[in-house]
Write a structure and sequence with these properties.
This is DNA-binding transcriptional regulator, MerR family. The protein has 102 residues and is mostly helical. The protein has one domain: Orthogonal Bundle (Multidrug-efflux Transporter Regulator, Chain: A, Domain 2), CATH 1.10.1660.
Length: 102
């Protein structure tokens, strides 16, 4: 079951309003592989709350002068760490309560 934060339901215009980033910058970050919006049937971009948080992190790092290639490496590391944490928590729950992994 995915979190509400991961559902792709927000239009690019709203994301721009929320983040203060131009549509052009948001598209550029997508082109650089920093995030992957969903698509509507007509090809419009749809973003999640998690995507908005990622864009805010990207904007902060860019303001610090960090290049997009380095930001991409950081994002990949963050995802890997989160997966490891999730697996550890599942293992701990299984050990503590005898729950099966799904």
């Amino acid at each position: 079951m995915s979190s509400y934060k991961d559902k792709k339901v927000i239009s690019i215009g709203i994301v721009s309003d929320l983040t203060g980033l131009s549509l052009r910058k948001i598209r550029y970050y997508e082109e650089r592989g920093l995030l992957s919006p969903g698509r509507t049937e007509k090809g419009g971009r749809k973003y999640s709350f998690s995507d908005v948080e990622t864009l805010m992190k990207i904007a902060e790092r860019r303001e610090e002068g960090v290049q997009t290639a380095e930001i991409k490496k950081e994002l990949v590391k963050d995802i890997s760490r989160q997966k490891v944490r999730d697996e550890m928590i599942k293992g701990q729950l299984n050990a503590q309560f005898g729950l099966r992994k799904r």
